[in-house]
Amino acid sequence: MTFSLHQVTPPESLDGPDAEEFLAYVAVRNAVEADILGTDLLTPDASELLPEFRSNPTRRRTHLAATVGGETVGRAMITTRPHTPGAGAYLTVDVLPAHRRRGIGTALLDASEAAARAVGETVFKVSREHSAATPGPRIAAPTGFGDVPQADAGVQLLLRRGYVLEQVMRISLLDTHGLVDRLEALRSSTPPLGDGYRVHGWQGPTPEDRLDDVAALRTRMSVDAPMAGLQAEPDPWDAERVVAHDQRVASTGHVVVTSAVEHVPSRALVGFSEIVVRPGHPAATQEDTLVVRDHRGRRLGLRLKIAAAQHVLDAFPHVEAVATWNAEENRPMLDVNEAMGFRPIGLEGGWQRRG
Ligand SMILES: CC(C)(COP(=O)(O)OP(=O)(O)OC[C@H]1O[C@@H](n2cnc3c(N)ncnc32)[C@H](O)[C@@H]1OP(=O)(O)O)[C@@H](O)C(=O)NCCC(=O)NCCS
Q1: Which residue lies with its CA nearest to atom 23 of ligand 1?
Q2: Which residue puts its alpha carbon closest to atom 20 of ligand 1?
C-alpha cells in the first residue's frame, strides 16, 4: 500500500477533535523509542510533549506524519533555532517496525532536509538512540570514545545518506534505591567546600534575583558542553528567556529541581545542575549540569549533583530512577555520575551532514 506525508500542527489542547493526528504522531514517536531502548520507563505523555513540540520564539519545530490507509506509521520532526542561524537543523525520523523497508524513512528524511533548507539551514544534525543490543561490528566515534552498532537500521539509513558519526552519548540510569547511603558516603569523602562557595537549591521556576545569573549559565552551557564535531553557535540567553523557558516547562507539568553554587566573593552563580521530575512518573531526568571553566577542579559538579539528588529524594519519594545523557568523551562528568551509581542503559549517536 502506498504512503503519503503531511504536516502535523500541534493542537491548542489535547481534548478537541483536532488533537487526534497529534496523538497518533506522538504514539509513533513513543513506540519507536520504547522499541529501541527496550523500556517505556522514559516514555513521555502527549501532555508533556505538547508544549515542547510547539514552536516558540527561540525554537521552530515542524512535524511531518507518514500515513498508510489513514493510519499514522511514521513521523519526522525538524527543529531550527531562528536566534542562531547557521547552527544547523536537528532532524529526527521514526517509522513503526511493521512498516519499514518500504521507503517511508527515506521519504521522511528527504522532506525533513528540504524543510531545513527552506529556512536556510544546510547543516543537518541527528541525535538518535540506537539499540545497544544490536550485535556485530561497531562504528567508532571520531572523539575516540564510544561506538554504535553498524547493523542498526538508523545507522544504515544515516550512513547511506552521507551523515557522519561525530559523537556518542551514553544514556545512564540511577536507581534511587539505596541512594541515600551512597550520597552520604560521597559527601563524607569529598573535601569541604570552604568559605569561597555556597550551594543553593530551589524547586520550580528560577528565583527572580537569580534570573540574570541563570541566563549567563545557560549561555555558557551552549558553548561549554562537549559538542565534538557537531555544528554549534553560541546561544544567548537573557532573564526574559529564562522566565519563558521556566513557564513552558511548568506547563508540561514537570517540576525542575535546581542546585546552584555561588562564588561568595563575587556573589555570582558559577554552576548549576537540574533534575526534571515528572509528578506521578517513576523516572526523573538529570538535565544540564555546568561549572564554569574558571571554577572547575574543586568538585563543585559533584556537590551540585549530590545536592539536586538529595532534594529529589527528600521531596519526591515516588522517583525510582533518574536518567541522564552524557558525551562519552566527557570523562569528568561520567566520573561524577559513576560515583553516584549511574549505570549505562543505552547509547545515542550524534550525526551530522553538511548539505
Ligand atoms: C531508520 C528508519 C527510519 C528506516 O525507516 P524505513 O521506512 O525502513 O526506511 P526505508 O524503507 O526508506 O529504508 C532506507 C534504508 O534504511 C536502511 N534500513 C532500514 N531498515 C533496516 C534494517 N532493518 N536493517 C538495516 N538497514 C535498514 C537501509 O539502508 C534502507 O535501504 P534499503 O531498504 O534500500 O536497503 C527506521 O528503521 C526507524 O524508525 N528506526 C528507528 C529510528 C531511527 O533510527 N531513525 C533514523 C535516524 S533519525
Answers
A1: 153
A2: 153
* Ligand 1 center to 95 CA (angstroms): 8
Please report the beta strands in 131-267, taking only residues with DSSP state E, as ranges in sequence order: 138-140, 147-149, 164-175, 197-203, 255-263
Query: Splitting the chain (355 residues) into consecutive groups of 10 residues, what average pLDDT does each group show?
Result: 95 93 98 93 94 95 98 98 93 98 98 97 96 92 96 97 97 95 94 93 98 97 89 93 96 96 98 96 95 93 96 97 96 92 94 92
For residue 310 the three cell numbers come to 538529595
Query: How many angstroms separate the CA atoms of 126 and 140, rounded?
Result: 16
Atom of ligand 1 nearest to the CA of 159: 29
CB 327 within 8 A of CB 157: no
Cα 253 to the chain's mean position, in Å? 17
Ligand 1 atom 10 nearest Cα: 103
For residue 119, what is its C-alpha cell?
A: 529556512
Q: Are 14 and 50 in contact (CB under 8 A)?
A: yes
Q: Give the phi and the psi of residue 334 in degrees, each rounded to 5.
A: -65, -35
In angstroms, what CA-CA distances link 119 with 62, 85, 200?
Answer: 11, 9, 41
Q: What predicted TM-score, i.e. pTM, was given to this entire model?
A: 0.94
Q: Is 32 in the pocket of ligand 1 (CB under 6 A)?
A: yes
Does the beta carbon of 157 lie inside 6 Å of ligand 1? yes
Residue bearing the CA closest to ligand 1, atom 24: 153
